[in-house]
Specification:
The chain is an alpha+beta fold. It has three helices and five strands.
Amino acid sequence: MNKLKKPIHSILIVLVLGFLSYGLAFSKTLQLRKDFKESQQLLDLIIQQRDSLHVEQKRQMDLNSILNQVTLSYDSTQNNLLFQLTKYVNNSNLELREFMAPHIFYTNSEKIQTVKVTMAGNYNDISEFIFDVENELLIGRPAHYQIKKTTKKQRKKQELLLKMLIENRETLKQ
């Protein structure tokens, strides 16, 4: 009987060792596969971000080329007004929808420039903008403004549109 137990023990030990080594190898393989899938997902994410960055850079180049084509003169009142409005819009919840070329009218002693500006936003932001233009804007004063309630068709969301004429008067040298 003793002779029979030794081979069985040997076979059992070999089977247990084989099973353990197989189990460890299998778990290591599963871990490596999991790591590979995570790195593959990370690579896909990096490629997506690179592509979206490329699209954004192309869009920025297109916008810069459009701006260069429609560049205003450096000293112009219109350019300064656009700069101030853009700075104001970036610090508030308003959206600058339209900025028209100025209408210039000469009287005997004055040059009057009127620029039509259209903004969109909520009531509080628009009323604050009107107050700031009336009291703090250095390049012009509002000549007329109209507030209109509209509905965006895509989102079915209501918003206010402000159409304002900003007037700048300069005295002509005689």
